[in-house]
UniProtKB/TrEMBL annotation, chain B:
InterPro entries: CPA3_Na-H_Antiporter_D, ND/Mrp_TM. Belongs to the CPA3 antiporters (TC 2.A.63) subunit D family. The lineage of its organism: Bacteria, Pseudomonadati, Pseudomonadota, Gammaproteobacteria, Oceanospirillales. The keyword Membrane applies. The chain crosses the membrane at residues 6-25, 37-59, 79-100, 112-129, 164-187, 207-226, 238-261, 281-299, 320-339, 375-397, 409-430, 465-487. This is Monovalent cation/H+ antiporter subunit D family protein. The keyword Metal-binding does not apply. It comes from Natronospirillum operosum. Residues 129-419 form the NADH:quinone oxidoreductase/Mrp antiporter transmembrane domain. GO terms for cellular component: plasma membrane. It is found in: Cell membrane; Membrane.
Automatic annotation (TrEMBL), chain C:
InterPro entries: NUOK/Mnh_C1-like (IPR039428). It is found in: Membrane. This is NADH:quinone oxidoreductase. GO terms for cellular component: membrane. Its main location: membrane. It is a multi-pass membrane protein. The chain crosses the membrane at residues 6-25, 32-50, 62-83.
UniProtKB/TrEMBL annotation, chain E:
Its main location: membrane. Residues 122-410 form the NADH:quinone oxidoreductase/Mrp antiporter transmembrane domain. It is found in: Cell membrane; Membrane. Keywords: Cell membrane, Membrane, Transmembrane, Transmembrane helix. It is a multi-pass membrane protein. The chain crosses the membrane at residues 73-93, 128-145, 157-179, 199-220, 232-252, 264-284, 291-315, 362-382, 402-425, 446-469. This is NADH-quinone oxidoreductase subunit J. One of its GO terms (cellular component) is plasma membrane. Belongs to the CPA3 antiporters (TC 2.A.63) subunit D family. It holds the Pfam family Proton_antipo_M. It comes from Natronospirillum operosum. InterPro entries: CPA3_Na-H_Antiporter_D, ND/Mrp_TM.
């Protein structure tokens, strides 16, 4: 049974061939993550693959992994279904599917990897393939975003590679991720890993590629990028870092700080954006900040299991909600939605802001509990503020979406699209009822106190919005142009590479000629000296003889 | 004389004899020539297979004839040499097929294939060389056999390249020869043995040992394209693509790298190297070359030149691996010998395909070529990603072992070198891939030779040009994915290293 | 200073003179003469050496005879070569 | 004693002056004439040093034949090419200054080398005297030439032959010699038979007294040249079998003797007991004829038919 | 000894017979050359089986007689001479531009061989003088065969050769005056390092160096060798210059007092290095093909001179093997090179190196022969030149105080690679090939290839050869 794990990453890969050569197969491509989902339910033993590299092992170590696998497979499945119809008219869809499948394969592989190398392989495959998704449209903006993405992804890869090496070395050659949990970590390793994974996860200040890349990709791709892929960074950190370590202890405040900064930075900058998908992307930056913060909790908490649960729930929650929003954003650019469509769209948005009865509410409450338990009660207020700001941000996103609709008559989306998108939209509401862990969290959040704690920031935010819209406060920052250091750097790098230094090994022709001529003249003079040959020879000999005599 | 002692000789002869026969053929005897070529290549693969089997089963293959006092001419098949021999045999087959397709209708093919076979014979001889004298001998012969290939086109540029090539390699050969004689005068030329033979015999003569080491490294470093000695390689790019492929992937640069391996492990030995602290400068040099080659590659506009500088960089991985003097790094170095071969040969095949099919030589002309020649471009992509070190292509495995090996011996900074090189590799390879796949394709290709059917897919170019590239790309992928299996190069490298380090 | 030594020195002097001529001169016939003078010097040395004993040394004398014949042969050839060579140079002009 | 020294001293002074003059006199013609004088003086010195064989040989070969050859060459050298190119201006003296210094240096070194030589003696001489009885001839020089060191002599004949052959290879260069004047005609009618007679005598005498094949051959050649120049002797074309036979006879016979002695006798060029005398005479006769004809041909030069 | 005598006499009789019969029959010479070769081989076998022999000519006792000495080296040189002569004879008989039909090439070449054989066998100082003259005259006569343009160089060669002979002869006279013997073995027992001996040896050495064209007395060689007909160039470079070298070697390794040899050795070795570099440089720069080959002879003789000088200086008999290997390898390679060069320039109708453009296409075999022979000159393994270089390097690298000499070899190797590949690289130029004037003669090309292959084939017998040479030399 264990060999079935092979199917998880291989199914997408094997599907590549029919995709390329058999047009009609594309219609079923979205089923590629299915084996992963099935296996998650079957839960066979893990598979050892010494033939790949020593210590290779695929399987599901714990429930977190299981949940993530199911959720990721589900997100990819639904986004895939969306994409089948969304991309149907695209002339370059074969390329899209190629990269889609590659990225999918990588994403699934990293989830089932139980050893560092497999994780890295999957991670790389996913990162690099996503490039194809980012630049898919081929527009200038997409190409720029893609370039930046790739540049940073490669750097991330290399940092990660170094971190991985160092980690393996620290573990004495052991590649098992489980074993690393108990192995102390060095500073260099930690920095490498933080930067490497951070670049993927996209928290501040490593986020610079994210707001450019996610909006550029096709909607389905944005959905998996923001929903599934950036989580790989957080997952990687949690897998690679040891559970408790003195060194980590020193770093945690910093990480937590970064997380929180990221959370608010995303909001502030996001609010200033004028494109819906960009706003959503900044929302991702903000949410990843929370995730990083949660991760620090996991690493400090007395009961890591609970914090771990929080992390898992948060990941799933954000993934689904953000996936739904991105798909929706894609949808509204193509057609006008009917009203119930907007109602659906509001669900994930509110969930993100932490509306009670949604997954968001559950997760936020759980988060506050954990923060309190961790003895950082002073941060509760900040988190509350965070909820309010999140609502502001998603509202801004929805508002922008509304305004970017085409001016046609509203139509209902086609069934598969509707199905996939709709499922994702209601997931934040539905999921708490279906998933025991989440259900428990949601029920906890339904107490009056907790509900109020969740609601009042939302109300505050709504009030604020009303004020802003009423008094057109936004006009003060409407023409504000934010610097884009990332893109700037990327462009500069490209230009630097394309301006070539003058070739040093080709001196000017005249200089060469004159040297040759001079040398030739010198040689002639020597030759002339040699013509009086015999005398020269005799002189040489005479000197030699004299030398001998003396 | 039993067969085990004849087999090494036969392996050499299996390309030498066809080569010499080919010289005598007329230009128009195409079929006979092709047959000779292919029969030779296949026979060699079979013989090498037999030898692999034998070595795995503990047989000893040794052929010796007297040559100079205390220095016999010895051909010997051990794990290390077989790794190189196998690479040569396999790549010879593919390159032969490729060359037949590449040169179809070109003049002077008999001469070309004759020297081609001689070149491979010299490489195999060098791989099987059982002592330093034999090694140096084949090393020089390799230079000679390669020169006509480099200047084969007979243009001014080719001649210039040929002259530069000779200036470097003959100079290096002479230095290596001096080193060999120096050691020979002290202790004769005993067989290469794991752990080296010098410590037992010449352990305390520091000056001689250092001088010999410097001479040998300088000598072999020329072909291995170590930093100040690499100048011939990029200019030698004017040769026809199969030659570049052979030069860069198998024959010449690997001969140099292999020489370094032999010198460090089987002549000096790790203990002696550590004792004399000889490896550190070499390590720095290799590290510098890795970065230097990559930086230079970055600024090339010509596809083949870029690949050439990439070779400069990549071959130094091997040097780096062996200079680290640790078992894991050694595995990385040795396995890169094969891995780099597979990947680089793929890249050159592909570059040749572009040049032959669409007359693409400059990088800026690559735009959209992936749509016209997707399979070639795919093979190219595999090779390029492998060079960067992207898993699961073979290059990743090498890098992995190199990195771990560096950490093992405490040379953590090497990790930065590897990462830096990976970054640079990405910087100069990814734009190619980008142009190929995503660049805007011209509406029609101005110089389309219409090889094959002329349509994307299996007929995108001549099948003899396409299939070798696909095969080697596939192999590069395969040996990366299946690195842990018994038949992989990695395993052979491990085997060798176990012997060398007495594990 | 004996007679032998005297002629030895004389021979050496002639030899040196001849050598000097051979090196310094360019006209072919003069150079040929120089060689002959050089030869005479050597022969004089040899004959002087033969004179050391009471009965002159026949071996040396024989050697000198041989040397003389060699010299005349070579001179004959050299002269013809020189003359022919000169004429050919003239022809070229 | 003193007059002996006077003689030696004046001879030396004269010959050195002559040598310098020969080399550096401006006119090539004068140089050649002086060189002939130099040869005659040298013959005198040989006689003075107790070497009558050499004196004869020098007179015949060195002075006579060489002089003839030189004059003939001079006659065929265009005036423009007679001058020594370096003999102009003061510059040449500046340039030759170092060469003179160098020559003096060499002279000085050689002087050091020859100083101790008069005290030494030779083992070969003693051996030669010891074995003279078995040599087959009474005159020691002939014994050395044709018996003790016969191989040298054989090779020397080959040298002569080679020189002749070498000359034959050259392209024809000379206009025919001018018609002989009548006086020469008359004199040669008289002189030639005399010379031939003296030559025969020298040859015959060579076994016991100074004289021998070379001297005889040279004299014969001189006679033959005279006769040939006056057209009293028929042209000695190479196509005549007798010319070839005579030219090659010396070497061939010598070599055959060597061959047969090796084959039949004691060893290469070891004459059988009692045969030494007659064999040497025979060889001398053959050699004399060879030398005579060869030298004649060398001087008058019959090259026409070598290159068809 | 009979065999050796046969090897000596057959060429002489052949020459006389040819002259007598006015025959210009190449096949006859080839036949007798074969016979000579057989005799020489026989002598070699004899000397290998029963040791060195000596023959007193005329059966006279020790100091009086001229002595023939048949040492292993002598026998080897006999074989070598016969081999090269045979090869060149076949070439000359075949070739259209060796002037065999309108000149006395055949008897001259036979006399040349005979005189060389006489030189190898002799061990008498004065006899060597005569053989040297014989050799010199034969060589000049052969050079002059190629017509008026060669007369200038030939005359220069002749005069310098005569002068050199007289320098040598003065040395011999001094030796005779000092010790009263001419036989080299007898001399060996008596020599002392006094002033007379010293000067005598220097004189002989200088004379021989001039004859062997050893640096700095080499300047007559390039023009003479280059202007000779092809077959003659091959003979001259391969054989003739080795004669004086042989005498030089015997003088210094047998007869010279040890102190003197030690003292003089470095000078010769330095001259050798200078020859390597300057000769090589000239070869690198000259625009004429045959001059290039001739200058390469100058350079390659530098190796031999270096070996000789170091042999004297270090008193290392092991270097004998190096010296003679150089001689053999150079002889074979140079014969091949000159034949190839001659064929190339005759067929292309130009004497310039630059005319060789594209010859790998038009005359592949000849060019290949040139390249292969050049490989041996460079010393690429496993050619004969390599073996020699190896033998020379070994004692040099054996002790650290000898190391500086290695630089000479290194540079020499590089520079020879330079001039060989200067030609070879040009031959690969396909852009603008020079068309041949007439159809290339494949047979002659293969003939040129033959010695080159032999010199590389020495590798097959290297071990016994080296062992034999090391054991064979005294």
């Amino acid at each position: 049974m264990a060999w079935l794990w092979l199917l998880v990453p291989l199914t997408p890969l094997l599907l590549i061939l029919p995709t390329l050569y058999w047009q009609r197969a594309t219609r079923w491509i979205w089923l590629a993550p299915l084996p992963a989902g099935v296996l998650a339910l079957l839960q066979p033993d893990s598979l050892r693959l010494p033939g790949l590299w020593p210590g290779a092992r695929w399987g599901l170590p714990d429930d977190t992994a299981l949940a993530l696998l199911v959720f990721t497979a589900g997100l990819w499945l639904l986004a895939g279904l969306f994409a089948v119809w969304n991309q149907a008219a695209d002339s370059r869809r074969r390329r899209f599917w190629l990269f889609w499948l590659l990225a999918l394969s990588g994403n699934l592989l990293l989830l089932i990897a139980q050893d560092g190398a497999s994780f890295y392989v999957g991670f790389t495959l996913m990162s690099l393939s996503a490039f194809g998704l980012v630049i898919h449209s081929g527009k200038t903006e997409a190409r720029r975003a893609g370039r930046l993405y790739l540049q940073l992804a490669i750097m991330g890869e290399l940092l990660l590679f170094m971190g991985l090496m160092l980690r393996v070395h620290e573990a004495g050659g052991d590649m098992e991720l489980a074993a690393w949990q108990g192995t102390p970590i060095g500073t260099a390793t930690l920095i490498c890993l933080l930067l490497g994974f951070g670049l993927k996860a996209g928290f501040w200040p490593l986020h610079i590629w994210l707001p450019a890349a996610h909006p550029a990709a096709p909607p389905a791709a944005s959905a998996v990028l923001s929903g599934a892929m950036i989580k790989a960074g957080i997952l990687g950190l949690s897998r690679f870092l040891p559970e408790s370590s003195e060194l980590i202890g020193g770093w945690l405040p910093l990480l937590a700080g970064i997380g929180l900064i990221s959370a608010f930075f995303g909001v502030v900058v996001g609010l200033l954006q004028r494109r819906d998908k960009t706003v959503l992307a900044y929302s991702s930056v903000s949410q990843v900040g929370y995730l990083l913060f949660v991760l620090t909790l996991v690493l400090t908490a007395d009961t890591p299991a609970l914090a771990g649960l929080l992390l898992m729930l948060y990941v799933v929650h954000h993934g689904l909600a953000k996936g739904a929003l991105f798909l929706g954003a894609g949808l509204v650019h193509e057609q006008r939605l009917p009203r119930w469509g907007w109602a659906l769209m509001a669900l994930p948005a509110l969930a993100l802001a932490g509306l009670p009865l949604t997954s968001g509410g559950a997760v936020k409450t759980l988060l506050k509990d954990q923060v309190e338990q961790a003895g950082m009660a002073q941060l509760i207020g900040v988190l509350t503020l965070g909820s309010a700001s999140t609502l502001l941000l998603v509202s801004r996103a929805l508002w922008l979406m509304w305004h970017s609709q085409p001016a046609t008559r509203p139509t209902a989306p086609r069934l598969p699209v509707w199905l996939s998108w709709g499922l994702l939209c209601i997931a934040p509401v539905l999921l708490p009822w279906l998933w025991p862990e989440l259900r428990q969290a949601m029920l906890n959040s339904l107490s009056i106190y907790a509900s109020w704690a969740l609601l009042w920031p939302l109300l505050l935010a709504t009030l604020l919005m009303a004020v802003v819209i009423r008094f057109r406060v936004y006009r003060y920052w409407q023409h504000l142009r934010l610097p884009q250091p990332g893109l700037r750097f990327s462009l500069w790098a490209r230009r630097w590479l394309q301006t070539r230094p003058l070739s040093a090994d080709a001196p000017s022709l005249s200089a060469q000629m004159s040297t040759t001529v001079r040398l030739r003249a010198l040689e002639r003079r020597w030759n002339r000296l040699g013509e009086d040959v015999v005398s020269v020879s005799v002189w040489v000999i005479a000197l030699a003889v004299l030398w001998l005599l003396i | 004389m039993i067969w085990t002692s004849l087999l090494p000789l036969l392996v050499v002869l299996s390309s030498l004899v066809p080569g010499l026969l080919i010289f005598t053929l007329r230009e128009d005897q195409v079929r006979l020539r092709t047959t000779l070529n292919l029969v030779g290549a296949v026979v060699k693969i079979l013989l090498v297979g037999l030898m692999l089997w034998g070595v795995a089963n503990g047989l000893e293959f040794r052929f010796a004839v007297p040559f100079i006092p205390n220095g016999d001419l010895v051909l010997k098949g051990d794990a290390l040499s077989l790794q190189f021999v196998t690479l040569s045999a396999v790549l010879w087959l593919t390159t032969t097929i490729y060359a037949i397709g590449y040169l179809e209708g070109a003049p002077l093919r008999s001469r070309f294939f004759g020297y081609f076979s001689l070149c491979v014979s010299a490489t195999v001889g060098l791989a099987l060389a059982g002592n330093l004298v034999t090694f140096v001998l084949f090393y020089e012969l390799l230079t000679l056999a390669t020169f006509p290939l480099v200047v084969h086109r007979g243009t001014a540029a080719a001649l210039r390249a040929g002259r530069i090539y000779l200036a470097y390699t003959l100079g290096g050969g002479t230095l290596a020869l001096l080193g060999a004689v120096l050691l020979h005068t002290q202790v004769g030329s005993p067989a290469f043995i794991p752990g080296g033979y010098l410590q037992a015999t010449l352990g305390d003569d520091r000056v001689t040992l250092t001088l010999a080491f410097v001479l040998l490294i300088a000598g072999f470093g020329v072909k291995a394209a170590l930093f100040p000695l690499h100048g011939w390689l990029p200019t030698a790019m004017v040769a026809p693509a199969p030659v570049s492929a052979l030069l860069h992937a198998v024959a010449v640069v690997k001969a140099g790298a292999f020489g370094l391996v032999r010198v460090i492990y089987d002549v000096f030995g790790v203990n002696l190297m550590t004792e004399l602290d000889l490896a550190t400068p070499l390590l720095w040099l290799a590290a510098f070359t890795i970065l230097y080659g990559s930086v230079r590659a970055l600024f090339q506009t010509d596809l083949k030149r870029r690949l050439a500088f990439s070779t400069v960089s990549q071959v130094s991985y091997i040097t780096l691996g062996i200079a680290l003097l640790g078992p894991i790094a050694a595995v990385g170095g040795l396995v890169h010998l094969v891995h780099q071969g597979m990947m680089k040969v793929t890249l050159f095949y592909c570059a040749g395909n572009f040049a032959e099919t669409l007359h693409i030589h400059k990088i800026r002309d690559l735009d959209g070529v992936g749509r016209r020649m997707p399979l070639t471009m795919a093979a190219f992509t595999v090779g390029a990603l492998g060079m960067i070190g992207v898993p699961p292509v073979a290059g990743f495995i090498s890098k992995w072992y190199l990195g771990l090996g560096a950490l093992e011996v405490g040379a953590d900074w090497v990790l930065l070198v590897l990462a830096g090189s990976g970054l640079l590799n990405a910087l100069y390879f990814l734009p190619l891939l980008y142009r190929g796949w995503f660049g805007p394709a011209p509406t029609h290709w101005p110089h389309d030779e219409k090889l094959g059917t002329g349509r994307p897919g299996l007929g995108e170019t001549h099948w003899m040009l396409l299939w070798p590239a696909l095969t080697t790309a596939f192999l590069a992928l395969l040996i990366g994915i299946l690195a842990g299996t018994g038949l992989s190069p990695l395993n052979w490298a491990q085997l060798t290293v176990n012997m060398e380090f007495d594990l | 200073m004996t007679q032998v030594l005297f002629y030895l020195i004389l021979g050496v002097a002639l030899w040196v003179l001849g050598l000097h001529g051979l090196i310094r001169l360019h006209q072919p016939i003069r150079r040929i003469i120089s060689v002959n003078i050089m030869g005479s010097g050597v022969f004089m040395v040899m004959v002087a050496l033969a004179r050391r004993s009471e009965d002159p040394d026949p071996v040396m004398h024989a050697l000198v005879v041989t040397g003389l014949v060699v010299a005349i042969s070579a001179t004959a050839f050299a002269l013809r070569l020189a003359v022919t060579g000169q004429r050919s140079e003239e022809d070229r002009e | 004693m003193i007059h002996e020294w006077l003689l030696d001293g004046s001879l030396a002074l004269l010959i050195l002056t002559l040598a310098v003059a020969v080399l550096y006199v401006r006119s090539l013609y004068a140089s050649i004439v002086l060189f002939i004088a130099f040869g005659l003086l040298l013959a005198l010195i040989w006689a003075r040093l107790g070497a009558p064989d050499l004196a004869l040989a020098e007179a015949a070969i060195g002075a006579g034949l060489t002089g003839t050859l030189l004059l003939a060459a001079l006659g065929r050298t265009p005036v423009s090419q007679r001058a020594e190119p370096a003999f102009s201006g003061a510059r040449q003296y500046v340039r030759s200054g170092p060469a003179v210094v160098l020559s003096l240096l060499i002279f000085w070194i050689l002087l050091q080398a020859v100083l101790p030589l008069p005290e030494q003696s030779s083992a070969v001489v003693r051996a030669a005297e010891q074995h003279l009885d078995a040599a087959g001839v009474a005159h020691p020089v002939t014994a050395v030439l044709l018996n003790f060191r016969a191989w040298d002599t054989l090779l020397e004949l080959l040298v002569l032959l080679l020189a002749f052959m070498a000359v034959r290879q050259l392209l024809p260069s000379l206009p025919r010699a001018p018609e002989a004047w009548p006086l020469l005609l008359g004199w040669s009618c008289l002189l030639a038979p005399l010379i031939i007679l003296i030559g025969g005598y020298l040859l015959w005498r060579g076994s016991s007294d100074p004289g021998g094949a070379f001297q005889a051959g040279a004299l014969l050649a001189a006679g033959a040249i005279l006769l040939r120049l006056t057209d009293l002797l028929p042209a000695m074309g190479w196509h005549h079998a007798w010319v070839r036979l005579l030219v090659l006879g010396g070497c061939a016979f010598f070599l055959l003797v060597g061959l047969f002695t090796h084959w039949l006798g004691a060893g290469f060029l070891a004459y059988p007991e009692g045969w030494a005398g007659p064999l040497i005479i025979l060889i001398e006769v053959a050699a004399t004829l060879s030398i005579a004809i060869t030298l004649t041909l060398l001087v008058i030069g019959e090259t026409r038919e070598v290159r068809g | 000894m009979t065999a050796a005598l046969a090897a000596l006499l057959i060429p002489l009789f052949t020459a006389l017979g040819l002259l007598l019969l006015r025959s210009r029959s190449g096949p006859l010479v080839i036949l007798t050359s074969l016979a000579t070769l057989a005799a020489a081989c026989w002598a070699l076998v004899e000397v290998t089986t029963s040791g060195p022999q000596s023959l007193h000519l005329g059966d006279w006792p020790e100091p009086l007689a001229i002595r023939f000495q048949l040492q292993p080296i002598t026998a080897l040189l006999l074989v070598f001479t016969a081999l090269i002569h045979l090869l060149v004879a076949v070439y000359a008989a075949r070739s259209r531009h060796c002037r065999t039909r309108d000149t006395d090439y055949w008897p001259l070449s036979c006399l040349l061989q005979g005189s060389l054989n006489a030189l190898w066998l002799s061990s008498d100082l004065f006899n060597w003088y005569v053989t040297l003259e014989l050799l010199g005259l034969a060589a000049v006569a052969l050079v002059a065969l190629s017509g008026r343009k060669a007369y200038g160089p030939a005359l220069n060669y002749l005069l310098l050769s005569l002068g050199a002979s007289l320098v040598y002869l003065l040395g011999v006279a001094l030796i005779y005056g000092r010790y009263g013997v001419l036989d080299i073995t007898l001399l060996a027992t008596q020599t002392e390092a006094d002033q007379s001996t010293r000067v005598a040896f220097w004189l002989m050495t200088l004379g021989l160096m001039l004859k062997a064209a050893l640096w700095p007395l080499h300047l007559w060689l390039p023009k003479a060798h280059a202007s000779a007909p092809t077959a003659v160039s091959a003979l001259l470079s391969a054989l003739v210059v080795k004669g004086p070298l042989f005498i030089l070697w015997r003088l210094w390794s047998e007869a010279a007092p040890v102190e003197l040899a030690i003292e003089t050795g470095p000078l010769l070795a330095i001259a050798g290095v200078a020859a390597l570099l300057l000769g090589g440089w000239s070869a690198l720069r000259t625009p004429w093909l045959k001059s290039l080959v001739a200058y390469s002879t100058v350079a390659q003789l530098g190796y031999a001179l270096m070996a000789l000088g170091l042999l004297m200086h270090w008193q290392l008999p092991a270097l004998d093997a190096a010296l003679w290997l150089f001689v053999l390898a150079h002889g074979l390679a140079k014969a091949s090179m000159f034949l190839a060069a001659g064929e190339l320039q005759a067929t292309l109708g130009s004497k310039r190196v630059s005319a060789l453009r594209g010859t790998t296409e038009t005359m592949p075999v000849a060019m290949f022969a040139f390249a292969v022979a050049g490989g041996s000159l460079i010393g690429l393994p496993p050619s004969g030149g390599f073996l020699a270089k190896w033998m020379l390097l070994e004692p040099m690298l054996g002790q650290s105080e000898h190391w500086p000499w290695v630089a000479g070899i290194l540079l020499g190797t590089l520079i020879s690679a330079g001039y060989v590949f200067r030609v070879v690289a040009l031959a690969f130029d396909r852009a603008d090939p020079v068309p041949p004037d007439f159809k290339p003669d494949r047979f002659a090309h293969w003939l040129a290839m033959l010695p080159a292959l032999v010199v590389w084939g020495l590798a097959l017998v290297s071990q016994p050869l080296i062992a034999w040479l090391t054991g064979a030399t005294p």
